[in-house]
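ok trying this again, last paste got cut off
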Amino acid sequence: MNQSADKSIFPKIAETVLGQLGLSPAKDKMNTDFRANGVLTLGAELELQIVDAGTCALTPRAEVLLKPFKPDSKIKPELYLDMIELNTGICRDANEIEGDFSKTLDLLVAEGERIGLAFASTGSHPFSRYAGSDVYPAERYNDLIDRNQWLTRRWKVYGLHVHIGMESGDECIRFNNFFMRLLPHLLALSSSAPFWQGEDTGLATCRPTMYEALPTAGLPYFVQSWSEFTSLCETLRKAKAIASLKDLWWDVRPSPGFGTLEIRVCDSPATLAETVAIVAFIHGLAHWFKDHGDWLSQVPQPQHWLMRENKWRVIRHGMDADVVVNAEGDNQAIRGDILSWIEKIEPYAMKLGYIAHMDVLHGICAKGSSSARQRSVFARNQSLLEVTACNMQEFKARRPLWE
């Protein structure tokens, strides 16, 4: 999330003084000071595949692609040289997110066409392999590879991260605990990674499985206050489980430096229309919860087994999953639950101008996510090359190409 407006020199002075003393603020104290920066504002980060326009294979040309863009542009490097990340600024609503991404995509696509590159934004590339992939030359990325070895090597997957502005740390934890119950819904809507290294995984999305071998990834822990969260983070730092909050690859996490709650569970949706629709859904849910905060006290806190089971079911079945709705083991189709939430937030969608985005969500519920579209293409001729070409075509069209 773009925070260029805040350029106070005092943290830099403090960091310089600590450096002269042989200390490091990141290592000696976990920075969990919550810096509120707008209430229910939005920001988004979208990871993209850099694809050779001729072969449809991933190609490690991020450095060439980034040359015309300034270092502070909204186009950023990522872990591998065949990945790129787009960032928005701080936006008031999902329509501004759409306008922000659209302008950046116009620049990116034009430069890509000039040098023979195309793009896709599904959660995985259908046939390219991760072995031997070139890491972007940055110290943090090299440290990640050194620390986690093969586990990080598999991170050739692509996600959407959505930031929601919070007024305080305690409020961030309340919204965190609300959205923890809706992580399967967001993953189902965005699921777009059925193929991996030339194979059908049998999953609606294989992307989450790439992270969950690490103890600080996947489902977060329930905490009830900001002080409880900061205590947990400090304990993890002291135990050398993490060096900073960036080492928490949770599906949803507070980002105190940005003053946001960051929802990280989503695959990169295949199209801009789906991306914006999911952001609008998240924003509508946040507005609903702001007015119905007592809802948390009216429903039991899900047990860990239940949350893990529901996430697995969506990983496996996507929009066709049945999820567990209570500790007694009752089931409900996630598609129906998503539709009930869309209906519940309809007054907010109307007020925010999101009705067209809700129509996209209805389309996903009726016809399936990107995973279903990719499998449909593959079923016709058993060609992952054609699947990839279709993903590239949808990315360029910026909307789902329903059959």
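PB: full thing came through this time. The chain has a mean pLDDT of 90.
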